[in-house]
Amino acid sequence: MKGKWLVLFFVALLCAPAWTTAGAVSEEDFILDTTDDLVTICTVPDSDPLQKEAISFCIGYLVGAYHYHVAENSGPDGKLLVCPPDPRPPRAEVVKMFMGWVKQHPEYKNDEPVETWFRFLVETYPCKP
């Protein structure tokens, strides 16, 4: 009986790539060459088979980039570019704000997503001198 389940598991695993190409989001969208790719991932509809993965990837990408910035610029010689308020707004709210900001700034749609993310953050949460 264990053998049947094991075989079924491996068959399902081998078929997984076929399932991931069925929706509006494709595996290529997760590469994030441009800000437009990030918007596609962050705004995937609930009906998309990769919706949970896309939203998790979106938030992980944005939070990871921010945390890298904080870690790289901490310490006595560090200079933060972004200073969010305390208490920090919920992640989903900031992502929604970012998507609205990007919509108002189509000139950045072909830029590196991390650059556009930090343009938004610096404009929205500037550090006071």
Labels describing this entry:
elongated; mainly alpha; disordered N terminus
| Number of helical elements | 5
Major sheet details:
none
- Approximately how much beta-strand content do the residues carry? under 5%
Report the strand count. 0
Order of helices and strands: HHHHH
Task: State the distance separating the first and last CA atoms.
Answer: 67 Å
What is Rg?
19 Å
Mean pLDDT score, rounded?
A: 84
Oligomer: single chain
Query: Residue ranges: pLDDT <50 for 5 or more in a row?
Result: 1-22
Helix content: 55-70%
Described by the principal axes of the CA atoms, the overall outline is elongated
The class by helix and strand makeup works out as: mainly alpha
Number of domains: 1
